[in-house]
Amino acid sequence: MFSIETKRLILRDYQEDDWEAFTQHFKDPLAQDGILSFQSGDLQIMREFEIGLMLAEQNPRLGYALAVVLKDTGALIGSCSIGGTIAGYTQTSMGWHFGSAYRGNGYATESAHELLRLGFQDHGVERISARCFANNVASRRVMEKIGMTPHRSGLLARWLRGATYGENKPIVQYRILKSQWFLNQSSEIAARSDEESALLLEVRDRR
Fold first, then answer.
1. pLDDT category of residue 193 using cuts at 50, 70 and 90
2. Of 24, 96, 174, 185, which one's alpha carbon is 20 to 30 angstroms from that of 145?
3. Paired residues of 10 in beta bridges
4. What is the C-alpha to C-alpha distance for residues 6 and 80, in angstroms, rounded to an integer?
5. d(CA 103, CA 129)
6. Where are the domains of the chain?
7. Measuring CA to CA, which residue among 65, 189, 182 is closest to residue 127?
């Protein structure tokens, strides 16, 4: 079974006994503002879950649909996905969804960071994008935190993008290139190194 561990989370392939928790998150009335209308339907939820189980069996994989689990409790708190990871794909998209009880804790950002690493570092994708409703401030903030920038498009294009999914509200798209992601990683490593050096100097001066 494929899995990734972060500081607080485990991102892993779906298991059959995840079904109940998976369904609850998409049926959660307080979390439906961030998903497309049809995604809360029984048939669509079942389809998404079955796709996740199918992807887990593939080798090579067309993509990843992963359960997001808390390390300390084992609770399934949401899901995330990235497609187009098979050789030959140069651009793809990713997404995430969490139960309302787990919002505001940085779990989406933590998961999204790993999806970018998976796409860029492990599979050599050149560009990754993500979409959300224009009024979904939380998801837009996640995209910005992981280094994505908004794709320039006018208001009409945003409304047309929403209409493509059968929605009567605008959808925005963010994206990031592999080159920018690697640059961001280098900058973060350098920043951490500077912080560690400053801390060592401070400790030495106290002696």
1. low
2. 24
3. 5, 69
4. 14
5. 22
6. 3-206
7. 182
Task: Give the class (CATH, top level) of 3-206.
Answer: alpha beta
> What is the C-alpha separation between 113 and 120, in angstroms, rounded?
11
Write the DSSP string, 155-202: HHHHHHHHHHTT-SS-EEEEEEEHHHHHHHHHHHHHHHHHHHHHHHHH
pLDDT at 198: 47
The tokens for 187 are 């900058």
**Residue at token pair 């098979």:** 86
Per-residue pLDDT tens over the stretch 12-47: 999 999 999 999 999 999 998 889 888 999 999 999
Q: How far apart are CA 203 and CA 194, in angstroms?
A: 14
The stretch 77-89 carries a mean pLDDT of 89
Mean pLDDT of 153-157: 78
Cα dist. 76→5, 33, 115 in Å? 14, 20, 17
